[in-house]
Amino acid sequence: MNTRMNTRRRRRKSDKPNPVDVHVGSRVRLRRTLLGMSQEKLGEAIGLTFQQVQKYERGANRIGASRLYDLSRVLDVPVSFFFDDMKPETAETGRQESDGGIEPTIARYEPDPTMRRETLELVRAYYRIPDAQIRRRLFDLTKAIANACTSET
Q: What CATH number was assigned to the domain covering residues 3-110?
């Protein structure tokens, strides 16, 4: 029996996903949605089922380097895109000693509200407006409404 495998800590089903995996998965979802691509189409392009794509997007399954490279090509973004906008506390996966050996210290993950489906749909609809002047007026109107709402509180 391999002693190295015995000392390695594996994630149990009840454990929460690593926040970095969740962030990378949310960036996959963001780009896929902005392109108007289904999970099924993305899966076909990289040789996976839509269920596997779903698990990647939730952070339930970790994305390996070669798969991340494939995703970057299919989604037409650099690999660095998947790590953009990551909060420093999410990226902190320092190591500490525990009873079971060395394991990562994982910061608490807060979901990003910009990754919600309605936000993604709003962005896609916004960019489908062909007239740049109308887009700008809509942008200004949205900012004005948001400012009015925050000044009321």
A: 1.10.260.40
